[in-house]
Amino acid sequence: MAEHEMKIRVMQTVSEGTKEIILGRTRKKELEKAFLEHSALALLHGDVCDLIYASDLAQKASGVEVFEIPGSCPQHLTCLGILGDVSAVDAAVQRIKKEICK
User: Fold this and answer.
1) Does residue 32 sit in helix, strand or coil?
2) What one-character DSSP code corresponds to residue 15?
3) In whole angstroms, what is the distance from residue 56 CA to residue 96 CA?
4) Which of 26, 48, 78, 88 is the most buried (most CB within 10 A)?
C-alpha cells in the first residue's frame, strides 16, 4: 500500500453471517453485546501505525467502539472495526478520511 492508503468499508447494518465471521476472528469478549446495541460498522485496512491512529481519531470524534480483527499471524493488525450508530460511525470515518487519507 502507498503511504496513507487506507481501505475503508462502511455497513449501515450488518448481516448475521457477517457478525459471525467477525465474532470468530476477534478477541473482544463484549463484541456480541455491542452488535446488539449498534447497527453500523466500518472496517478499515491499512498499515499498523495508521490503524492505531485511526482508532484514536474515531473514538475522539464520536461515541463508537473500536476493535481489532487480527490476521492469520498474531503480529499483524489486519483490520480495525468501528462499531456504533450510523451517525457516529459516519462521523468517525469522516474524521479519519480528513486526517489520514489526505
Assistant:
1) helix
2) -
3) 9
4) 88
User: Residue 102: how many CA atoms within 13 Å on its side-chain side?
Assistant: 3
On whether the pTM is more than 0.70, the answer is: yes
Where would I find the H helices in the chain? 16-25, 31-37, 48-61, 86-99
Q: What is the rounded CA–CA span in Å between residue 19 and residue 4?
A: 28
| Confidence tier at 1 by pLDDT (50, 70, 90) | very low
Amino acid found at 49: C
C-alpha to C-alpha distances, 101 to 25, 36, 53, 98, nearest whole angstrom: 26, 30, 12, 6
Cell numbers for 67, please give them. Answer: 476493535
The per-residue pLDDT for range 6-15, each reduced to its tens digit, is 999 999 999 9
